Amino acid sequence: QRCLERLKSSRTKLLDRYRRTGAAGAGAGGPAPGALLVQEVMEQEWQVLRDSLPGRQGQEPLEQMPKDLDELAVLEKIQQELILQEQLVIKEYEQSLQFDEECLNAMLEGLDATDRIICPMCRKNNLTVKTHLVCCQCGLYISTQDMTEGKLRSLLESAVTEHSHRCCHSPEFTVTSGMEEEASLLMSCPV
User: CB 3.0 to 4.6 Å from 183: which of 59, 124, 135, 177, for a disulfide?
Assistant: First the structure.
């Protein structure tokens, strides 16, 4: 149980080691590269157990190793269980990486597939950009002159980028209109 707890607390160390060694051997069905961590964990716990026994501290390590076949079988079983636990952690990590990669690919495909702009007001729908009009299903409706998606994207990106150089908070967008003015898209910061 203590070996298992120590292994769980060494999760970060295990993943760091796995990242350094790469996925070599993980797909081959053999023990994962991090399997050495199980040996470390068992050796540390064996040392703690050995030191806690009265009158055994001064003996050589070889004399302190279990000689009984039953004891060796139990240790072997513990080691196999710990290796399975370790491989489970690595498998979860690989699945997480795969999920992240799939999400990134989906985002990139979405960017490649369309040159659309997400509405800065509702942040859900795509904007409809025409020469004299920018609108969205959420109700955003602005009259424009000679507007293109590329031009609008450039304006939005430069405004948000300039703001991010001075402030770490996200700006908000609203539509404003005065008595004599037409509707305008206003970017403001709550901070």
Answer: 177
